Amino acid sequence: MRHEFDAVRASFASSWPGTFVAALTQAAQSALRTSATVAAARSMARTMKAIPTGSVIRTFAIAIAIAAAVQPVLIAVMPATVAPAMPRPVFVIVAIFAGLIAWQAEAIHRAWSTSTLGRLMR
């Protein structure tokens, strides 16, 4: 069975779609190595690792709370045909939970690091 797959791979690699995919892959890899966006993302990832986890959790929770609070205002200015049909209390509940998470960020981090699910995801 493996021999047939090798033959299919070789056949595809020598075809024009195969060479196109290979060239596209090579161009994407080259672009990723020299991309300013990827360099900025890598730098941000290093910065995020230097920040305490509780602060990261709090920052993201605050961003989610702000987004949930602003969403009803954005929905109000959208045309009715494209506005999401979520009721306003959903956004209030999300903002409240995000606020609670921001308030107890360190406790959530401690609980997560000792939880079974947290250990399984590492």
List keywords for this structure.
2 domains; mainly alpha; 122 residues
Quick description:
The chain is mostly helical and 122 residues long.
What does the model show?
- The model has no long low-confidence stretch (mean pLDDT 86).
- This protein is an all-alpha fold and 122 residues long.
- It has 7 helices and no strands.
- Helix content is 85%, strand content 0%.
- The relative contact order is 0.07.
- It folds into 2 domains: 2-36; 51-121, no CATH class.
Q: Share of helix among residues?
A: over 70%
Please compute the radius of gyration using only Cα atoms.
24 Å
Proportion of residues in extended strands: under 5%
Query: Could you give the count of β-strands?
Result: 0
How far apart the termini lie comes to 36 Å
Sequence stretches where pLDDT stays below 50 over 5 or more residues:
none
Overall pLDDT confidence = 86
Count of separate DSSP helical elements: 7
Strand-pairing-aware structural class: mainly alpha
The run of helices and strands is HHHHHHH
How is the biggest beta sheet arranged? none
Taken together, the total number of domains comes to: 2
Shape: extended
